[in-house]
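Hi everyone, sorry if this is the wrong subforum. Our group has a chain we'd like a structural model of before ordering constructs, and none of us has done structure prediction before. Sequence below.
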Amino acid sequence: MFPREQLSHTASTLKDWAVTVNFHIVLSGVSIDVPDGWEAELAWAEGSPSPSDFSRFAESGGRVVAHLANFVMPAERGDYGSGAVETMDANAVFVALLEFDRSSRPGALFASRKGLPVDLHSRDFSPDQLQRRLPGQSGLQCFFTVRERRFVLYVVIGSHRRREVLAPEANRLLRRISIS
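Answer:
Right subforum, don't worry. Here is the predicted structure as tokens:
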């Protein structure tokens, strides 16, 4: 679950979530230009040292978790979107970006891809890649590194049949994320 220390924007108080405005959020080198119609939350991962504990924070760098969705996300949800993905309709896209501990060994899982994937293809999505299968949904998971930082990108789309439309929607969002 998301900890209390977070930077977020939520449209949950708006009558029509599609009227959310563009905004920019930054945390620990992760920068997101959030487009209209999207909701975003960028937070310290649970178990990360507090930025106020500077020596521990400087050692580990803290770990970030980002959640982005083109629908209203519930306040309570798991790192991979449990609690949110159950509310998705066929046009919905949910993106989770999770950083792994910088002191952990990189391993083969992260060796194959450098940089945030921004060119997802419809053929990359499969119901078999979901953390938990939900009717009609499809997902993908990509492990990657950016400057010795290790991440996983987890994307869920509301309809496997609409992946030709929803994959480009996810790519438009991903191109608005930078990691330094």
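For your construct planning: DSSP finds three helices and nine strands in the chain. The beta strands are 6-9, 23-27, 30-34, 39-44, 64-69, 93-99, 138-146, 149-157, 177-179.
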